[in-house]
Specification:
- Two copies of one chain form a homodimer.
- Chain A has helices spanning 29-42, 54-61, 81-94, 105-109, 113-127, 143-155, 174-184, 199-208, 218-231; strands spanning 18-21, 46-49, 67-72, 98-102, 132-135, 160-162, 189-193, 212-215.
- Chain A is of the alpha/beta class.
- Chain A has a single domain (14-225), classed as Aldolase class I (TIM Barrel, Alpha-Beta Barrel), CATH 3.20.20.70.
- In chain A, strands 1-2-3-4-5-6-7-8 form an eight-stranded parallel barrel, surrounded by eight helices.
- In chain A, helix 8 (199-208) links the parallel strand 7 (189-193) and strand 8 (212-215).
- The radius of gyration of chain A is 17 Å and the shape is globular.
Chain lengths: 232, 232
Amino acid sequence: MDSIPSGLNPDFELARCIDHTLLTPTAGLQEYRVQAREAARTRVAAFCVPPFMVAEVAPILKGTKTVTQTVIGFPLGFHTIGTKVFEAREAAAAGAGEIDMVVNRAYIRTGRMDRMAAEIQAVVQAVAPLPVKTILEISDLTMDEILASASAAVLAGAAMIKTSTGFFGEGAKLDVVRRLRDHLGPKVGIKASGGIRDLDQAWAFIQAGATRVGASRGLQIMAVFEGGAALW
Amino acid sequence: MDSIPSGLNPDFELARCIDHTLLTPTAGLQEYRVQAREAARTRVAAFCVPPFMVAEVAPILKGTKTVTQTVIGFPLGFHTIGTKVFEAREAAAAGAGEIDMVVNRAYIRTGRMDRMAAEIQAVVQAVAPLPVKTILEISDLTMDEILASASAAVLAGAAMIKTSTGFFGEGAKLDVVRRLRDHLGPKVGIKASGGIRDLDQAWAFIQAGATRVGASRGLQIMAVFEGGAALW
């Protein structure tokens, strides 16, 4: 898809909804540097990088509109609370401005929502006032599990609910984002991520209720929008 | 495959080569408990569980022939050295007897073998004298990268080279295990893992030079062997 979806106006601040993402485990420092500069130029909301790259990317993004974002307990979420807290604190100290944390889905599946919440609370407190997004990895959860864990996460201090890691399963789904928006009300942030590859899809998720879209093709999506916006 | 491969004798201590593995992110405490008891009964070398389950499983396996094993920086390996050391130390304190650590493949890909080695060394020192296996995730590395990183890992103190996480790519390959065995000589442990689903495959990897086989079907593989051994 290389054209502008209908309903998307050139003055819509699309960049503020895009988390450009580079989480390829073999990607080297140069790729992060180049993409960080381009992310800053396009003013996307965030550039999401692995924990070991936060210290390299944060100085490049400092003073720009683009936040350095990283992932905690990623992508399986089955680490200890202690490790998640340590990892998040280290990321904050290295210059991360946003934290995307994978929740422990064993707790969701076995009905231990209290433990899931305790873990989120611990990470939220460890990095306050930085916003923490909680990644549910919706693909192997039921709709009931998704809604129950999302509201528990918000009550535990999560700033935003994120659908997927992008590494497993089907990724983001429009109907889940719509249900989450209905369920959580208008104020909670929702980040759709996983399998969103073009501007058409990104815009569809924003219309469904997502306030952010995470995509490893975030810069390409911006390029299509900017190219189209220039023609308007 | 439900029969005994030719060349496998009933007195071969197969159990000592098997790391039974349960790393499903939604699995609950009961599943770990049941499988831990069965792992101990079959005397497999290890039961590999997520970090957050080490403290639950270690007391069950205490005093048995089966070691509690866990995974560090799993499965992407792109955490900071600090987080990997913290996670490994916590696992050791909680009763893990073996540590399977994912190396940082960005360092391999960009020729920073010194950094990869420094990370391994830090984890090895943090948990000494526990043996540390290094997971290379061979599926997206070239044969040259695999051999170079394997010898660097051994020099940095790794007790064993492990092929794959089982979460991405093709998993273990017979030709890679053969090449690793030639390259590393007879003394270094090699763990084949990823996609090994039956006794036939497990035995093929052992014949190719693996000293351990990691499998989420480890208990089923043992059941087939025990059933066959009973008929001999």
